[in-house]
Amino acid sequence: MKDGSTPRRPHLAAALNAMAVVATLLSVGYVWAKNTQDRLLHSAAPEFCHAKLHGVALIREAFTRPDTLVMFGSSELIPDVPMKGVDFFSDLPTGFSVFPVGKAGTTALSVLQKLGGAGEVLTGKKVVLSLSPSFFQTETVDAKYFEGNSSKLQTKELLWSDEFSQGLKSAAAKQILAYPRAYEGDWVLGFTLRRVASGGWVDRVMLSLIEPYAYVDRAIGRMQDHVEATAALLEVPQETTKSKKIAKGKRILNWDELFLSAEQSSKALANRTKRKPLKASRRIGEGDSLFVGRMKKAQEWRDFELVLRLIKEAGAYPLVISMPVHADVLEAQGVSKKGWMEYGRELKALTAKYEAPLIYLEDHERDAIFFVDHADHIGSKGWWYYNKAMDDFFHNRPGFLPVASQATLLR
Amino acid sequence: MNFAAVEAWLAERPKAKLVAYSLYYLAIAIILILMYGRGDFSTPPFVYQEF
Fold it and tell me: Which of A6, A26, A240, A287 can bridge A334 by disulfide, Cβ–Cβ 3.0-4.6 Å?
């Protein structure tokens, strides 16, 4: 443009100017959002907002922090009981805090999505998986549980990630396709799921054709995720945020003393919430074959195996903690110890296959104060065991040394 | 507002015209970001019966 003359393409020049301003604003906004997430991440630890559970930004941020241990679980993460992991470690008493991810009904397939969304940041990181035995006692996963915990963005990140093998992604896609509500209204996701599940050469060509579009689609989703995550963090009350900053540093915890305190809290809670006696529907032993048959066919095993496989492929280090079964509930259903021990056997075999350390708290099957109710919701005493295990795991104490990843073997 | 007069005024001032057009496109971009900038990460609702 000559000085004082009209530009040859005034609209093009103006649009480029506007795009440059927008790009600058987005870049500044992205840096600000990342800084905010870094600064306030710990305040999101006790939250159950959509951005944390169904986005990828906060989970990825938690994995990148050396002072944070990410824990996946389900409804046991919700009840407010003394010594709950997120509260117990909130002031980093031994140098780390716990970042729990999950809510009611978060089964293994949902955990698979969330871990898949973290992608390459999983490499070399520790992750805790809390298992609810009740998920393994039915043949199928309740569709509402998965749909209510599913995330389109996490699924896309998993399916388009280069970190995981085609076999794993195909198996995951086949499982997710069984829940149409998890991808309805998003043709990119539906298309990707079908093509990845099929895995033929035509499917791969079609995936290559939409790859640029899918990349832009995910990029927009990630930007939206950063906006949502930052907004969610800023919505956490300021006093809560401040309280998370106190007393950072290592202390020597007296676990024996803490155990007594946890037991007292659990007893007090049990006295307040008297449980109704269970009515026996069958004689003990009569329900064994039904229980074992259902348990062995449970879809949750297949989904949980995918989780262990993903962790191994990513080169991360898992710790699996399974709460005990409820002996009184199972006995009322006619299941004997011989029957429910099959759950422990299956669990030990599967975790051994993937060299994942397992803590199965089977000694507490008849412990009336381990749980707060007859569902898989642990009380203070239960949390003591969880907290001790997580502390030992984080600090690589004997029995918790990470096994060298054999990711390449499975690719 | 007399648009013809505005157009004539802008036609005589190319730099002002460029700035006006730039602001116009910038406004469109900002409106689009405000409309679609926040994602929806909600899931289908479900009622958990175990509590």
Answer: A287
Please list every residue in chain A whose beta carbon sits closer than 8 Å to the beta carbon of residue B37: 223-224, 227
Q: Could you tell me if B8 lies within 8 Å of chain A, comparing CB atoms?
A: no
Residues on chain B touching A105 (C-beta within 8 angstroms): 46, 48
Alpha-carbon span A230 to A38, nearest angstrom? 10
For residue A17, what is the nearest residue in chain B, using CA coordinates? B22
Which chain B residue has the Cα nearest residue A6? B14
Interface pTM, i.e. ipTM: 0.76
Q: Which residues of B touch A375 (CB under 8 A)?
A: 50-51
CA dist., res. A228 & res. A237, Å (int): 16
- Return d(Cα A215, Cα A162) in angstroms, integer: 13
Predicted confidence band at A198 (pLDDT cuts at 50, 70, 90)? very high
Helical spans, DSSP H, in A161-298: 166-177, 187-198, 201-235, 238-243, 255-272, 288-297
- Rounded to the nearest angstrom, the gap between the alpha carbon of residue A84 and the centroid of all alpha carbons in its chain is 17
Smallest CA–CA separation between B31 and chain A, in Å? Answer: 11
C-alpha–C-alpha distance, residues A195 and A202, integer Å: 9
**B25 with A15: Cβ contact below 8 A:** yes
Running DSSP on this structure, what letter comes out for residue A106? -
pLDDT tens-digit readout, A104-147 = 999 999 999 999 999 999 999 999 999 999 999 999 999 999 99
Distance CA A300, CA A133 (A): 10
The separation between CA A265 and the C-alpha centre of its own chain, rounded to angstroms, equals 28
User: Cα torsion for A7, A13, A14, A17, to the nearest 10°?
Assistant: -140
- A230 within 8 A of A37, measured Cβ to Cβ: yes
CA distance B16 to chain A (A): 10
By C-alpha distance, which of B29, B7, B15 is closest to A20?
Answer: B29
Q: Are residues B43 and A105 in contact, defined by beta-carbon separation less than 8 angstroms?
A: no
Please give the model's pTM, rounded to 2 decimal places: 0.88
Within 10 A of A323 (CB to CB), how many other CB atoms are there? 26
Residue B2 forms contact with A (CB below 8 Å):
no
pLDDT at A248 over 70: no
CA of A39 vs chain B CAs: smallest distance (Å): 21
CA distance A41 to A234: 10
